[in-house]
TrEMBL record:
Any one GO cellular component localisation term in the record: membrane
Originating organism: Candidatus Azambacteria bacterium RIFCSPLOWO2_01_FULL_46_25
Protein's recorded name: AI-2E family transporter
UniProt record similarity statement: Belongs to the autoinducer-2 exporter (AI-2E) (TC 2.A.86) family.
Superkingdom of source: Bacteria
InterPro entries xrefs: AI-2E-like
Phylogenetic lineage: Bacteria, Candidatus Azamiibacteriota
Gene Ontology process terms (BP): transmembrane transport
Length: 342
């Protein structure tokens, strides 16, 4: 069976297309995020249209207010946060040295094999701690390394938002006419579901972060601001996020005293109950349709493939894929029913 030259040419084009998309994946991620932000700001632009304000002016005003809020929050939080990170990076290895010396003393009366295993574990663990604390500064610098990408996202989303139905017009431009209506309908559904999920998730993260900061400050855990920030960030990870933030908080508390660690454990248990039975029902009741396990897997895959940008676009892409699969299932069911009638 011979393969025609035209088939080989098409296959080569597909391979080149995939390779090109892989090369520009960061650019595509930036464009995708810009579309999401523009669609989120579109309702505000439509609201100000009622007052006969030029759309560019109203959208620019919204951007300036949002940027002002973000800059203000960062100005208040980032300096003490960086100080906490630096102090923690210096203190943790010292605590490790103290604890390991105490454990080495207690292992003198234990079986040599067990003592040797314990010592090897502590040495390896210490190396990991030192590597982790050294990597803290790299993580902080990585945040500022994304400033260019952040600026590009803002500029692109602004130009999309100042146009009436800018995102839809962009989708019309890049979509074949035969699929145009379906793509627009799909985007409207995805946009609605994403906005509900994102609003609920951001509110939940903010409230949990504030509660962790207040609670840990009250019981005397050091670096409460940093731990509150970590709790807010981890909150984006359903189920596992609160557990991970609790582990970090208890680990810091135990460096001070076992009693403080016990109080910290009790605090996180109470917080988890409040979150599950009060905060989640109130803040997330409208954010339906996104399975927590699917969100976790999407975030992990996104982080593996594209780092921070990959994580940011993983949930929107998963939502689109979910809607496509749902449409496919409905279409398949409809064909099956029509076949049975025939």
């Amino acid at each position: 069976m011979s393969i025609s030259l035209g088939t080989l040419f098409k296959a080569a084009l597909v391979v080149l297309g995939i390779w090109f998309l892989f090369l520009v994946k960061e650019v595509l991620a930036i464009l995708f995020l810009a579309i999401i932000i523009a669609s989120a700001l579109a309702p505000l632009g439509e609201f100000f249209d009622r007052f006969y304000l030029p759309r560019a002016v109203s959208v620019l005003g919204v951007y300036l207010v949002l940027i002002g809020v973000v800059v203000g929050v960062f100005y208040l939080i980032i300096p003490p946060l960086i100080n906490d990170l630096k102090e923690l990076a210096l203190v943790v290895p010292e605590y490790y040295e103290t604890v390991s010396k105490q454990i080495f003393k207690t292992t003198r009366g234990i079986s040599p094999d067990y003592a040797k295993s314990a010592q090897e574990f502590l040495i390896n663990f210490g190396d990991k701690i030192k590597g982790f604390t050294a990597g803290i500064f790299g993580a902080v610098s990585g945040i500022f390394g994304g400033v260019v990408a952040f600026g590009a996202i803002l500029v692109i989303s602004f130009y999309l938002a100042i146009q009436k139905k800018g995102v839809e017009e962009f989708l019309r431009l890049v979509t074949p006419e035969v699929n145009e209506e379906y793509v627009l309908n799909l985007w409207r559904r995805v946009e609605k579901k994403l906005s509900k999920w994102l609003q609920g998730q951001l509110l939940l993260a903010f409230v949990v972060g504030i509660l962790v900061f207040i609670g840990l400050s009250f019981i005397g855990v050091p670096y409460a601001l940093l731990l509150g920030f970590i709790a807010a960030i981890f909150e984006i990870l359903p189920i596992a996020g609160p557990v991970l933030s609790a582990v970090v908080g208890v680990s810091v508390a135990i460096l001070v005293s076992p009693v403080l660690a016990l109080f910290t454990v009790l605090f996180y248990i109470i917080l988890q109950q409040v979150e599950n039975h009060v905060l989640v029902p109130i803040l997330m009741k409208r954010a339906t349709g996104l399975n927590p396990v699917v969100v976790i897997v999407a975030l992990l895959v996104g982080a593996k493939l594209g780092g921070v940008l990959g994580m940011l676009i993983s949930v929107p892409i998963t939502t689109i894929a979910g809607e496509l699969l749902e449409d496919f299932a409905k279409q398949k069911s409809a064909h099956k029913k029509s076949g049975e009638r025939a």
